[in-house]
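Internal tracking record. Fields below are filled automatically when a chain is submitted to the structure queue. Please do not edit lines marked as system-generated. If the sequence contains nonstandard residues, flag them in the REMARKS field before resubmitting.
Queue: standard
Priority: normal
Entity type: single polypeptide chain
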Amino acid sequence: MYFFLSNLSFSETLTITCAVPKMLEGFPSERKSITSGECSAQSYFYFLSGCTEFIPFAVMSYDRYVAICSPLQYPAIMTSSLCARLVILSWVGGFLLMLPSAILKAGLPHCGPNVIEHFFCDSAPLLHLACADIRAIELLDFLSSLVLLLSSLSLTVVSYVYIISTILKIPSGQGQCKAVTTCASHFTVVSVGYGISIFVYVHPSQKSSLHLNKILFILSSIITPLLNPFIFSLRNEAMKDALKDALARGQSLPKGVRST
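SYSTEM-GENERATED OUTPUT FOLLOWS
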């Protein structure tokens, strides 16, 4: 699980790096600009990192399934080589899934005005700058999002169905509570991630919801990555102890300053 969490952290760092610094750079200036090449690269790598988040979500749900439903076989099934292959597969799969749409978007003509109705180069506002028929590309984006989100969500749902059925069969309440806490953080992050992304990207045309997408972009690309480390760390006793120590030192610091 920690191996997959490190990959998830890297993907979220890439997502933030693609969009947020350029957005913050434009805040002080009245006229915000970005070159077409930078815009295409930002859009591609943003969605690439997004793909490599959702595939590990499904992989992590399978990891939790094995840990709870077959705990004695867990070391034999979830080997280091298998985990490495799954992570590589997620990056290769994301690269191949996003590549056809990126190539088609790069060849679109733009007649102006080249003003993006968003904080960054999202797919929908970028497409609607083109003076060409974009229905085929919109359909390709829709199908790519549908395949990625629903396939990984299906595997996640099936895994959790087996996990819940196994938890209900555990005779002791303490054992059920321990099993639930094992999955609670992952389930919370998965619910938020899939809920926002399906609402934003899984419909054929995104033009009607551009303003709402700005708000959801802030939630999915800034707020959620900020909260994820806390969500995954709250069930770790070592992290809880470190947080308590930090808070205790913070409370004692003003007293030490006053005494001097």
